[in-house]
Structure prediction request, 372 residues.
Amino acid sequence: RLDRIGQKRDIHIHVPYIQNSYEEILFHWYHEGLDAFNAPVKGAQALLEQVGDQLNHCLDHSKDYLASGSDKLNKFLNEARSINKQLEDKLEKGRDRLIEMASFDQQIAKKIVDEIKQIDSSNQLKEYMDKVFHHFGVHSNDLDATSIYLCPTDNMFVPHFPHLPKDGLSVTYNRQKALEREDLKFITWDHPMVYDTFELILGHEFGNATIASWADENMSQFLLESIYILKVVAPQALEASRHFPPTILRVVVDQLGNNMSARFKLDELNAQLINAKKDKIEQVKEIPKHIMNDLLKKSYKYIEHKIEDVKNRYLKATTDEFDREIKRLEDLQKKELVVDPQEIILLQDNKAKVLQTISEARIHLDSLRLVV
Prediction:
């Protein structure tokens, strides 16, 4: 890897070869014929198809081509350079400048780059993962401000933490440090450990029911917060979740079953709560079961009408997306460009399957929080 990411110095290439042998021919071929040591080679396969026999002849008769006073090698290399230049020009002309111009928008690109830089400089991921490691019993030891050493313990809440080997792992949240040190694994929001941690939390019973108290002791409002998840169930190959990602529906009711969701937004409510003390938890145990069941039924009624609204929104967006792609292929087909009719048929079939899957999306109660 001559141009390894993170390389800060000039690269010096040393190419040893045996003089007056086929190796010397190869050296001149790569260096003078292809210019392979200075830049990536374009159209190398096409060039080899045209001059491959001559190259093999050179290699088989290397002494004749390298003999003093012979210009056979120079003639061959000049011819190869000329053909290589023609191939490069042909490839360059084959680029569709209009597509390239349409494919790049400087403002959009700058916005994406700025967002990436903002994510890289944020401590949000580190703070989140520190909490995850603490709650699941994973031992973590700071190596520096952005790097930590992780290892499993005997007191973890799960038998195996995602992507954490038995002998531990050194990770960093700093992109530049990860580029410079191959012993540090770079952790981002897209890393398998982080992604599977989400799956572990969402799919595990740990933390799906909790009790909280008001930080202000003068507050005595009873609340039941319910989190429902609406999602599709379909074969992975259909990629239905790309068109209909799991959607969270939240509702908050008081002791009378009144909808308090608009009054108690999630972030605002979190800021007013603390962990419930033991005496509060004991009080909750005394609440009759039928009262909780009634509140849950009322909670579901408040979100029932939202389910169809969410489905209809994703049905429209998915229909528009498929229709645009189908129309694009049909337009290309009218211009007599190479478009396999099966592609259009496959898209239409996938469209029908995905829309059917979305219409059958299921909802389930994911988690509860009592505020007392």
